[in-house]
Design goal:
With 139 residues, the chain is of the alpha+beta class. 47% of the residues lie in helices and 17% in strands. It has three helices and five strands. It has helices at 2-16, 23-65, 67-74, and strands spanning 78-80, 98-101, 105-107, 116-122, 125-131. It has a three-stranded antiparallel β-sheet, with no helix packed on it. The radius of gyration is 32 Å and the shape is rod-shaped.
Amino acid sequence: MSSNLINNRNILSASTHSNGFTILELLVVMFFFALISGLALPNLSKAYSSWQRKLVLEELLMNISQLNREAISQNSTIELSNADSVSKLPFLWPKEWSMQTQSPILFYANGVCNGGVLILTNGSIVNRYDLQAPYCNPI
């Protein structure tokens, strides 16, 4: 009889301890996952747009740094002066960026530049570059 009682206790204790998760535990975990992802997704979107803007700026600066070589290969003068001059550049200017200069920056056919201040603007972001003669490399 006592062995029968011990076996019944073992059966009861085995049936109350399961190896899986309850539906309540799964719901709590899913709630916290949804809460955390809801907080993180807006920041992820901002980080992506910031990264994309930085990538376009780096490509733009690389293209500007190549202008002295481009002036040599075309055997002509290339001018950076205002928004109208971007259509004459040998590369495609990104539409979300605007350019201002205090005075025209000229890249001569011999590869030399006269220098100047270049201001690149994208919305509220303003980047100022002092292009030093003779090579005017903004990077």
